[in-house]
Amino acid sequence: MAIKLSTDRFSNARWQAGFSAYFSLACVLFFVISAAFTVLHQSSYWDDPYHLAAGVAQLQTDDPRLNADHPPLARLLGALPSLFMELPSVADGNPNAWKQADIFYTTNAYIGTIEERLLLPGRLTMLGFALLLGWLLYAWAKELFGAERAWLPLALFAFCPPLLANAPLVTTDTAATTLMFAAVYGWWRYLNKPTLVRLGWASLAVAAAFCAKFTAVLLAPLFLLSGIAAVLSPAQLPYDGKRRMLIIGGALLAISAATIFGIDLAYFFDGVWLTPPEYLAHSRSLNSTLQAGSETLADFWPAWLPVPLPFYYVTGLIWVLTRAGSLGHWTYFLGEAGPGGWPNYFSLLLLVKLPIAALMLIGFGLSQALSRFSRDAWNVLFLALPPLLLIVIASIGKMQIGIRHILPAFPFLFLLAGYTLRYRLTRGRVLAAGFLVALSAVSTLSVYPNYLMYFNFLAGGPEQGWRISINGDDYGQGGSDLLRWLQARNIDRLAYLPNGWGGTQLSRAGISYTPPPCSDTGELVAVHAGRLLTPENLAESMCFDWMRLRQPDQKIGYSIFIYNAGNAATRDVQGYLNKSLALYNAGKFNESIEAGRKALQWEPNNAEAYNNICAAHNNLKHWRQAIDACNRAISLKPGHALAKNNLAWAKQNMARAQP
Known about the structure:
32 helices; 7 strands; 62% helix
């Protein structure tokens, strides 16, 4: 629907529309490039290997047995690059774990292949969802507000830290966000103008969303409520009541049928049309989670009635609903560690995980929409109901492990922010919106590439945000950064508490580690904040007390805390000095200089390191460099006899070398 500009518009409408289109395109491209660079040299986070192993396994064997905890669509797309590679079999890596559908041990046996060959291609493939989400967001914004105003939701999208952090990961979160948004957009378009083509697109989007993440089950009440509203609204569908019911009811039935078929197809029709007794028989050789799901199904589903959905989808959905409803997930929130269930968890995260400027635009847009609610009630309800329903349901449940679980709410909030310019497109209002977007961009880019650990200043920024929440923020990232930090200092052993696959990365690089001590012994300790704040048992909790009661000496990516870095420095300075002297005695003068410089990285004012460098330069006849190094050694230690002798030798030989 075209929007008529107010009489006080500040420039030509065609120019504004062109600017909006190009700026929106630039926002999407920035988002994709920025997100890609955050993982370019990063190793696996917590979930990437699980999803890749499950996707590759299904492509190799047509068996979806590793896809019980999540539907397979996002995993299959992330694993697509494997079709162009010669890879070992996932199932053969640990046959016993494969037989039991044990995704952890199956993945653990395949982690080397994932890290070396699959991780980066899979992550870059996942960015296709971000491109699709950007296009859908612009298309809907253009229909709602007109081409001139469509840029604002895209700008908020481009500088959204949680989306930037999760978009390149091989997980289900961004896929679910994109496909749920596509489903609601398709349903909105169909209800505005019912056609078979629009119904087909809506059906495809809904089916894809259900195949991406179990969260998509929330589309069912959402579609039903909006369908009832359309039936009761002659203004929305200008037909008689009976015809409206037929149009909406028939569409819902068609979408349901398409969704069931799509889910069956995603699992390659494995385990479809089994009865509860067959579920129980099929699950006997599998893990306890699938057995429990089969038993729960048998409690309420008639024994004679086949289930028209795949075995792994049904048992996985039952497991997720059970976990979200009663079991929960061990979580840290505002100084407490528990199984979840805090009613204010997601609402507070929403306030601290987005830039303040973005929150201001969302708040102002929502106030503008509500102030003229009677004019645009249908559209406002369509935009407000999905995030409201998602946040309320997530807050009631116990699966509270980070902002990523309500990512599908974000694009709807960005569209609501578009109401900032919906009714008046004045120069002042556009400049104010642009200024807030610029502030949002600065705030977001200030933590690049550590978008997962973004917190706004209400939470104390990324340095202090972990005190509010850490699960889903510390996602096991930083393993590569820690490895580079250790290698730069020639450290080959430490005490380390990994979160995810970091321990595997260090071991493969030849670095040994032991569990952190239960008291401060002075040794170098690295610990992920998520593990520090959510210990697995009481003994572990008590063991970590000494670290929780003191500030870390250093942080890597805001999420890995380093303790006793200074002690490590003292130890390794001496190690480098010994190495420098040994290399000098062996006649390897360039290597001796390099070892001396490594010592200076830890302790820049070490006179012995400068003296060793001076002596090595003397033997290489680098007189000027030798003089500089010896002078530095003497300035740090005036009585250094060896440095004075080396300095005299360097000066004497440089004088002879001069004509």
